[in-house]
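Deliverable D2.4 — example input (structure tokens):
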């Protein structure tokens, strides 16, 4: 099994109390794990969940960050500030940030640099829209997004970056990218990344992952884990998903 990362993007599904409650139940449930399991709750619950996770193998991520460290930037939170309260990973370029909040590849690249500068691992989401897929522009879109991430990027030995392939049409739709298709795309992404760096860059698949369909993804050689949205937001579903990929050959 090649899966290592199980990342739970709680989006804006859960409020403070609900996030802390789910985090506490997960902490009771997960004592040891050979996976890197991280939850990405609403910012307002980060600090409390950092306390809840103390001494547990569970890790903490944020859903977004700004590209400036500090100053007159109303409404912004920086990677440095997030790191100070226990955040190890930051999602960047999620489809909802790109399509609802208008973030572009240049914004995302600035955020990647800011995360690396702060010592937080960026988890950069890339993926094509349904229209791009249907008009044969999938590879072009991914190529452009990957170029923006890696062009003139030098990763120091201690710095890492994770790429999550999340086809826009598969997010929150129940229409997951079939594993064989995801495998082909992941091979393409791997080859593209190789043109920029020799570093091992973990690749995650995301988009309508559930306890029922997760196993084939994490069994792919090209995939090092999954980024899970709605199926990670209840205890039963998230632990069901963890069980589905535990101790499988
Ligand atoms: P989903 O979301 O699992 O609900 O499709 C995935 C994501 O947006 O990261």
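Example output (designed residues):
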């Amino acid at each position: 099994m090649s899966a290592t990362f199980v990342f739970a993007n709680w989006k804006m599904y859960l409020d403070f109390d609900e996030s802390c409650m789910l985090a506490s139940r997960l902490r009771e449930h997960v004592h040891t794990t050979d996976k890197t399991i991280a939850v990405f709750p609403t910012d307002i619950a980060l600090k409390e969940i950092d306390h809840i996770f103390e001494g547990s193998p569970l890790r903490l991520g944020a859903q977004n960050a700004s590209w400036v460290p500090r100053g007159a930037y109303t409404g912004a939170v920086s990677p440095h500030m997030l790191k100070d309260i226990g955040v190890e990973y930051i999602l960047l370029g999620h489809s909802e940030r790109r399509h609802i909040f208008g973030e572009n590849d240049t914004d995302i690249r600035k955020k990647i640099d800011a995360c690396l500068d702060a010592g937080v691992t960026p988890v950069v989401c890339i993926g094509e829209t349904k229209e791009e897929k249907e008009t044969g522009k999938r590879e072009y879109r991914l190529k452009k997004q990957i170029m923006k991430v890696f062009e003139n990027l030098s990763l120091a030995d201690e710095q890492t970056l994770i790429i999550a392939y999340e086809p826009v049409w598969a997010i929150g739709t129940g229409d997951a990218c079939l594993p064989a298709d995801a495998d082909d795309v992941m091979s393409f992404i791997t080859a593209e990344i190789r043109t920029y760096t020799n570093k091992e860059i973990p690749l995650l698949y995301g988009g309508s992952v559930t306890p029922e369909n997760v196993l084939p993804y994490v069994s792919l050689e090209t995939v090092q884990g999954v980024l899970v949205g709605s199926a990670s937001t209840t205890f039963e579903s998230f632990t069901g998903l963890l069980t589905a990929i535990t101790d499988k050959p």
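Residues 9, 166, 171-172, 206-209, 227-231 surround 2-phosphoglycolic acid (CB under 6 Å).
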